[in-house]
Design goal:
The protein has a domain of about 140 residues: Collagenase (Catalytic Domain), CATH 3.40.390.10. A five-stranded mixed beta sheet has the order 2-1-3-7-4, with helices on one face. Strands 5-6 form a two-stranded antiparallel sheet. It is globular. Helix 3 crosses helix 4. It has about 200 residues and is of the alpha/beta class.
């Protein structure tokens, strides 16, 4: 039986409002596309542009900053380690001027690598364990290509993210959105992935 008159309009309005509330809650849960930006992929090695995404072995993440341009790149890399990654459950440290496999998990280099079509990339120079999408690399090399002009804050955050398991994101507010994105921070979604893993 379908109710008529004034009371039926109120019932329909309440029912429509309830449906709208459910739709909003489901929308807030996040889209499947943005949920897939975590996990390893790529081929180990440092020859050429062996771009990849890796997990670091554990939550203690020592990043060696190697001979970086002191006025621009060094401060940006140090700030990204502290502001984007040390605020998660990663225990992240930026160490200037050294990089050794025994004491570091990632090493960052800035060099004019030539017109190879990329601003930066992450390569696994260490020992790998496990299998994708859960592969771990004991030592990542983060390369920043000074041949091109880029937003150093975005690129630092982006390439460091690949060294701890963040893939490209669908969130335009994340530095993981794309290398050319203006975003310079990890998002709550990105940090949630890191906190779950580490």
């Amino acid at each position: 039986m379908i109710a008529t008159g004034r009371s039926s309009r109120g019932t329909v309005a309440r029912f429509t409002g309830a449906l709208l509330a459910v739709a909003v809650i489901l929308g807030m849960a996040g889209s499947p596309a943005s949920a897939t930006n975590f996990g390893s992929t790529g081929t180990p090695g440092t020859d050429g542009i062996t771009n990849g995404v890796w997990f670091t072995p554990d939550r203690f993440w020592n990043v060696g900053l190697m001979s970086l341009e002191p006025d621009r790149n060094l401060p940006a890399l140090r700030a990204s380690v502290e502001d984007d990654y040390n605020v998660t459950d990663l225990d992240a440290f930026a160490i200037t001027g050294s990089c050794a496999a025994a004491s570091h998990d990632a090493c960052v280099f800035d060099t004019p690598y030539g017109r190879n079509g990329v601003n930066g990339w992450n390569a696994c120079a260490g020992t790998v364990s496990g299998s994708h999408p859960n592969q771990t690399c004991s030592l990542s090399y983060v390369r920043l290509n000074q041949t091109y002009t880029w937003d150093v804050n975005n690129l630092a955050c982006h390439e460091l993210g690949h060294a701890v398991g963040l893939r490209h994101s669908t969130e335009t507010s994340s530095c993981m959105f794309a290398a050319a994105s203006p975003a310079t921070i990890t998002t709550t979604h990105d940090r949630g992935h890191l906190n779950t893993r580490y």
